[in-house]
Write a structure and sequence with these properties.
The complex is a heterodimer of chains A (335) and B (410). Chain A contains 14 helices and two strands. With 335 residues, chain A is mostly helical. Chain A has a single domain, classed as Orthogonal Bundle (ABC transporter involved in vitamin B12 uptake, BtuC). Chain B is of the alpha/beta class and 410 residues long. Chain B has two domains: 191 residues, 3-Layer(aba) Sandwich (Rossmann fold); 160 residues, 3-Layer(aba) Sandwich (Rossmann fold). Chain B is built from twelve helices and 15 strands. In chain B, helix 3 packs parallel to helix 4 and helix 10 crosses helix 11. The longest helix of chain B has 19 residues. The chains are: A mainly alpha (335), B alpha/beta (410). Chains A and B meet through helix 2, helix 12 and helix 13 of A and helix 1, helix 3 and helix 4 of B.
Chain lengths: 335, 410
């Protein structure tokens, strides 16, 4: 009973968020709707990175590579071969998964800062390909004129239907990743994050768990890339840049790593800051910097992480006459 | 805590502001969307661009075709995805009538299909990528600047015929703009009997050229450098320090007015080709340079000139249709028909592909009153982006890139 009492709040919040996202389009100007669409796409990417950073404790600086692979799959297949949505989706996710499978073999030999450096280098390999394989990628000029998705049962040429498509993609990615982290597999990843040696002693195949987690994160990152290319109608090496990888990392840190939904919120905040605040002031970087510093100083666990522990602390205290004392042992795996 | 609250309040304020930011414009002011980098690597150039545009408006009472003008400047941060978002905002929220600005080529390519989709005239005063007005033209997009290889074509001929160079080595920045500038130069230089014997490429933002200079061949008549921004600032000095005495020629951006004030005597004698020089000896330009200096404390760069001319261009078109810019098809047709006989850079009109036909100036860096200037030593009048070639034949060849034209004499 006490356990459900604690869980009720986040669940209501999740349902509330879903309702707000469903009902949003008529209430927003088309510009805000595009920003929300963009935030959802980045949200998928940030959630996929959270599987590595938050749940497995691996900080990757090359996550933009998978975004770029998904995006370039769409760019090349649609502009050259007129491929429909399903083909590009399959190829994009597969390309990212294959790349992650190869990169994982190289990167997972190391941990900590060395892992960071290797993923950075591998990310730059993809950037280099995008930049220099001109016959395929048009190099620096990028691939323009990517159409809106075709082959779907309804037309998504307009902003609102496209928004719903992205919302479905976001929900799908969320459900998949949530299932992964809730499953024994995900719990093992958390165990590895907390103490790799202990998990090894217990008989877990640590490397294989990390490897599979790495590939899943890459594949979902590629999925985000597919949607990203359709959203922008344009693909360029900027998608594979180190700056993009860093930005995703900051989204996860800002939203709260290891919370899955937190990184999506982090993505929303950063997208709004970059695109909306910069409309009002050219000093938007100052505000962005303030938000980062504020997060580090006041909420090192990110927005959602801090909110959760704050709520949990409140509930632990006896509340009012009813005196519902919540079992301090309760809460989710990372509550 | 107080600071965090403030941040939250700020974001909330901005969000609410955004929601009610949408206004509709029925016969209000003419709205111009101006997309330029205001932060990041291109911010200084972005400043030159907005300064040029604003200066023309200020000189003309802030009016175009008798109607008030509202310029909405949006920061692209030099990133295509941000530029796309901001372009959407300008069109859907601000209901602009015409968009301009755009520094980088990839942003040019990213926005062009969107302009066709939105049916909004989009004018590029700077983005130079050849194919924007060659193999991938867009109905709603045209240029008031120049295409990358446009000044290179006459310059290649000039280097072979007038400067009598036989063998040249090139060193350029390794991206599409660099490939196109050098490709155009190589084509006409070799067609006039010259030989490109070496092509070196350095990554964008290279500031240390020592590894490249040590590879540079010394048995050539001249070295052609294709530099931009930070590389333009560093290259001539390092070239001199390496003890190389071979004449240095180069792309317009290697010696343009944006970098010239920061260069020293090492740049003297640097010969380049471009559609503009602040030293141009015509009354319109002389006045432009004096006024610009008075206002912004520096010599105008070609970025300022092209944006200044773009403002006048929009005015000219809007005047021709009685200020009725709401009729976009009519407005676009008028924009494409504009001919300006007396801009600071000289006469300008568009070809059918949407690129200006204009003079190309061969310029040499000289010192006058302690300052460096690009003295014009030769003028090629009314140069088209296709030079002396027939457009349809020219367009059969691929766009210039790293390996085209191939380096036959390397």
């Amino acid at each position: 009973m006490t356990e459900t009492a604690l869980l009720r709040h986040p669940r209501t919040a999740a349902i509330g968020a879903a309702l707000v996202l469903l009902a949003a389009p008529p209430l927003l100007s088309s510009f805000l709707l595009t920003l929300l669409t963009q935030a959802l796409v980045y949200g998928i990417l940030a959630m996929s990175l959270d599987l590595l950073l938050g749940y497995t404790g691996l900080s990757s600086l090359g996550h933009a590579a998978y975004l770029a692979l998904g995006a370039y799959s769409v760019g090349i297949l649609t502009t050259r071969h007129g491929a429909n949505f399903w083909v590009t989706l399959m190829v994009g996710v597969l390309a990212a998964a294959v790349a992650a499978a190869i990169f994982g073999l190289l990167a997972l030999r190391a941990t900590g800062v060395y892992f960071l450096m290797i993923t950075l280098a591998l990310g730059m390999v993809i950037w280099g390909l995008a930049h220099r394989w001109v016959s395929m990628t048009q190099g620096d000029n990028g691939l323009s004129g990517v159409p809106r998705p075709t082959g779907l049962p309804w037309s998504v040429a307009e902003g609102v239907p496209f928004y719903y498509l992205v919302l479905i993609a976001f929900a799908l990615a969320f459900v998949v990743l949530r299932t992964v982290v809730r499953a024994p597999f995900g719990q093992t990843l958390v165990g590895i994050r907390e103490s790799e040696t202990r998990m090894r002693t217990l008989g877990y195949h640590v490397w294989l768990h990390k490897y599979i987690g790495f590939v899943i994160a890459g594949a979902v990152g590629g999925f985000a890339g597919v949607i990203w290319a359709y959203y922008n109608g344009f693909v360029s090496p900027a998608d594979a840049e180190l700056a993009t990888s860093v930005e995703v990392l900051l989204m996860v840190a800002l939203g709260g790593r290891g919370t899955l939904f937190g990184p999506a919120i982090g993505a929303g905040v950063i997208v709004m800051l970059k695109n909306l605040v910069s409309v009002y002031t050219h000093r938007w970087l100052l505000i962005l910097g303030t938000v980062y510093i504020g997060t580090i100083v006041y909420a090192p666990d990110g927005i959602v992480g801090t909110l959760r522990s704050w709520l949990a602390a409140r509930r632990r205290r006896p509340v009012g006459v009813a005196g519902v004392v919540v079992n301090p042992e309760g809460g989710g795996p990372h509550g | 805590m107080a600071r965090k609250l403030l941040v939250i309040a700020l974001i909330a304020g901005v969000l609410v502001g955004g929601m009610f930011g949408a206004t509709d414009a029925q016969k209000g002011p003419i709205k111009v969307g101006f997309l330029a980098p205001m932060t990041g690597g291109g911010a200084q150039i972005g400043k030159d661009m907005t300064n040029g545009f604003q200066m023309w408006l200020d000189e003309n009472g802030g009016k175009i075709a008798g109607r008030q003008v509202e310029v909405i400047i949006e920061d692209t941060q030099g990133q295509p995805q941000v530029a796309l978002t901001k372009f959407r905002k300008l069109v859907e929220n601000d209901k602009i009538h015409v968009a301009t600005g755009i520094l980088f080529a990839h942003i040019g390519y990213a926005l062009a299909p969107k302009a066709d989709e939105y049916k909004i005239p989009l004018i590029y005063p700077v983005a130079a990528a050849d194919d924007l007005t060659q193999r991938k033209p867009s109905k709603w997009v045209f240029r008031t600047g120049w295409s990358s290889s446009q000044p290179s074509h006459p310059f290649g001929e000039y280097a072979a015929k007038t400067l009598k160079y036989k063998r040249i080595a090139t060193i350029g920045i390794d991206y599409a703009f660099g490939w196109e500038v050098i490709g155009g130069f190589q084509k006409t230089f070799e067609e006039n009997g010259g030989q490109i014997v070496q092509k070196l490429w350095a990554p964008l933002n290279t500031s240390d050229f020592a590894p490249y200079l040590s590879q540079l061949r010394r048995d050539v008549d001249a070295v052609f450098s294709m530099m931009v921004t930070i590389s333009s600032l560093r290259f001539p000095k390092q070239y001199q320090d390496a003890g190389i005495k071979i004449p240095l020629i180069g792309a317009g951006t290697s010696f343009d007015e944006f970098v010239l004030p920061s260069l020293g005597d090492e740049a003297l004698g640097g010969t380049s080709a471009l559609i503009y020089s602040a030293a141009l000896d015509n009354p319109v330009n002389k006045k432009f340079v004096v006024e610009y200096r008075k206002k912004f404390g520096k010599v105008p760069s070609y970025y300022s000139e092209t944006c200044y001319t773009t403002a006048r261009w929009i005015n000219e078109a809007a005047k021709g249709i009685g200020g009725d810019v709401e009729d976009r098809e009519k407005f676009l047709a008028a924009l494409r028909k504009v001919e300006l006989p007396d801009t600071p850079r000289g006469p300008v009109k568009l070809d059918t592909y949407g690129n200006p036909i204009q003079n190309v100036y061969i310029r040499k860096v000289e010192k006058k009153d302690g300052e460096l200037w690009n003295t014009v030593i030769h003028t090629y009048p009314a140069v088209s982006q296709f030079w002396k070639y027939k457009p349809d034949e020219f367009l059969k060849q691929p766009v210039y890139d790293r390996n085209f034209p191939p380096c036959k004499h390397c």
